[in-house]
Amino acid sequence: MSVKHGLLALLERGPMYGYQLRVAFDSATGGTWPLNIGQVYTTLSRLERDDLVAALPENEGQRPYEITPGGRDELRKWFATPVQRGDRPRDEVAIKLALAITTPGVDVAKVVMTQRTATMRTLQEYTRLKTQPGDLPWLLVLDAMIFQAEAELRWLDHCEASLLRYEPRPVPAATDVEVPR
Amino acid sequence: MSVLELRDVHRIHGAGETAVNALNGISLTVAPGELVAVMGPSGSGKSTLLNLCGGLDSPTSGQVLVDGTSLQSLSRKQLAAWRRKRIGYVFQNLNLIASLTAAENVALPLDLDGVRKSRRQAEIALSEVDLDGYADRFPDEMSGGQQQRVAIARALIGERRLVLADEPTGALDSRTGETVLRLLRSKVDAGAAAVLVTHDARHAAWADRVVFLRDGAVVDVSSRDQPEELLSTP
């Protein structure tokens, strides 16, 4: 997701100025993606340049923006298009573990265990938040984080079981790696 | 004082060359108001641990104490009475008696001890799990989630302060399973102590502590008593 589409979705509710957009974005994402006001205004400028939003006359020193028909089309396209796995950030835990296995002197089981404890704590913390009242959009964001943490824990269990059967192959030394010409 | 305490508990199944070390020196305490989840792969000792906590099995060495009393110090008859009065069980397969109503199922542990007005206590226990008006229904007239709530009401009726739950959400869908966990959590918050065996991390996350077992030993403990909050509710 880009900030651009987030702001377009919020402006579909009605005209808003920068600070209102920042607060609404924070509320919609449950504070999981904090935006600074600079990001909001930079994005609004780009959206205005691309005719996706239009600035309205100033009101008490604040300039509200409204979504344009072009912005509405862009928003519909966004909602209709699935998010591709490749668009998401790389999984640092997976990369760290892959490197741990091939790095001499690293206790890989310990790396798995340390990560599992941390992820379990995170999952416990998210679950505690579920006991507090919240609106459905926030609860769904929370559920998404809970399911992601659960998936990571299942994957870590799988890694641990796989490590027990793992017999390492010799890792090529840096000097043996062929450099593409 | 802790409700449950395990002191260096070992359990060896079989003898000689075929002996299997099911538990290797487990020490664990569970305080009132505390929910402890036990996770681990198949064969890691989870069920053995739960059976020992409930006095359904005896350790090869070490001690299991419930409310300060060592279960090994009790005769079989005393142990049966102790279990009935002090320990509640929730199993994956519910173990409700089909020919008894919800209230009769819940009141059964009290009836076995000759407690009077057990029906009234059962109705209160059913009300606490949001099953007002279900007292005279038979298990097959209730949904899986409702039956599991009856099982929890039965587990907590009377003076019992320790609940042992073995995959209590196993047969339930995700949302109903969460309802059962919320209920268990609220019972624990009200002062009970509970041990929950589960393979589901989302369910274990309702616990205050998550104990990971491997090959009969505790390999890891995750606690949620961290000072900082990861996220705030908007």
Automatic annotation (TrEMBL), chain A:
Residues 90-163 form the Transcription regulator PadR C-terminal domain. Residues 7-77 form the Transcription regulator PadR N-terminal domain. It comes from the Bacteria. InterPro entries: Tscrpt_reg_PadR_C, Tscrpt_reg_PadR_N, WH-like_DNA-bd_sf, WH_DNA-bd_sf. PANTHER family: NEGATIVE TRANSCRIPTION REGULATOR PADR, TRANSCRIPTIONAL REGULATOR YQJI. This is Transcriptional regulator. It comes from Lentzea cavernae. The lineage of its organism: Bacteria, Bacillati, Actinomycetota, Actinomycetes, Pseudonocardiales.
From TrEMBL, chain B:
Gene3D superfamilies: P-loop containing nucleotide triphosphate hydrolases. It comes from the Bacteria. PROSITE patterns: ABC_TRANSPORTER_1, ABC_TRANSPORTER_2. InterPro entries: AAA+_ATPase, ABC_transporter-like_ATP-bd, ABC_transporter-like_CS, ABC_transpr_LolD-like, MacB-like_ATP-bd, P-loop_NTPase. GO terms for molecular function: ATP binding. Keywords: ATP-binding, Nucleotide-binding, Transport. Pfam families: ABC_tran. The keyword ATP-binding applies. Residues 4-234 form the ABC transporter domain. This is Macrolide ABC transporter ATP-binding protein.
